[in-house]
Amino acid sequence: MSISRPPPAGDRAPPGKWLRTAALAATLAMLGGCRDNGDVTGSIDSGVQPAPASQADLRANAEALGKRYDADPGEKVASIAYAKALRALTQYTQAVAVMEAAAVKAPKDMEVLSAYGKALADAGQLQQAADVLSRSYIAERPNWSNMNVQGSVADQLGDHAQAQKYYQDALKIAPGEPIILNNLGLSYALTKQLPLAERVLRQATDNARSDSRVRDNFALVLALEGKFSEAEKVERQDMSADAAAANVAAIRQMIAQSNSWRDIQALDVKAKKHVAKSAPVGPAADDAPLAIGKPPG
Predict the structure, then answer these.
(1) Domain boundaries, given as residue ranges, for the chain
(2) pLDDT band at 290 (very low <50, low <70, confident <90, very high)
């Protein structure tokens, strides 16, 4: 089986695409817009070495692994490594083809099914990804990374309750794992449970292994709650003050232009009234319910 090499040039999504797409999808979903078929709440591998950082290194790595793969198409180790390199280059269709060949040779190998399911999820073949991932581990040997991707797939299919169960089960295996917490928080955001999303994403950002992508999502949820100054403070950890202000202003403008901003405000007010029953009176300014001025006419 011959798999063409990744193109030598061309646009590539940044390493954090899955998280940035997640942020955009969450924003659009809560603002009543359409959401794309990207990786809504993301997935990453666990227990693997970091991929080469630069675009040139990624291409060189894929080229070397591709030659190794071509020497024995469908061989397990070479297939998994090559598919992972292709995924890093966003060559998702090719990654699926590589892992499909491996799955034909080893239809019950859980490592092969894991890599195949993740490639399918990246390629947007969600129902097939859900089926393959369901066979990629057993109850006696659970895999938190695969559960995390199952959650991502379920969120994209609109089954947020099932997605959140996958994330929660994954957290039982890997407590405090920031990637899982990030995805769970965004899943709560997609169901407009903003205070809960904030709490979970705050826990994710408190982890020393979280990065700017997780903080971006935390800032997004804070802005959606109307906590604009705190959102800017979070963004300033990774960018200039001007850039942070521009990011938050863009989210604020998106909310202001949405016809569903009243629903977000009503949910936020209801949640805070519930919390206020056991909290001191007089919240700080940033804890006030979402207030954007007059709604669109």
Answers:
(1) 17-275
(2) very low
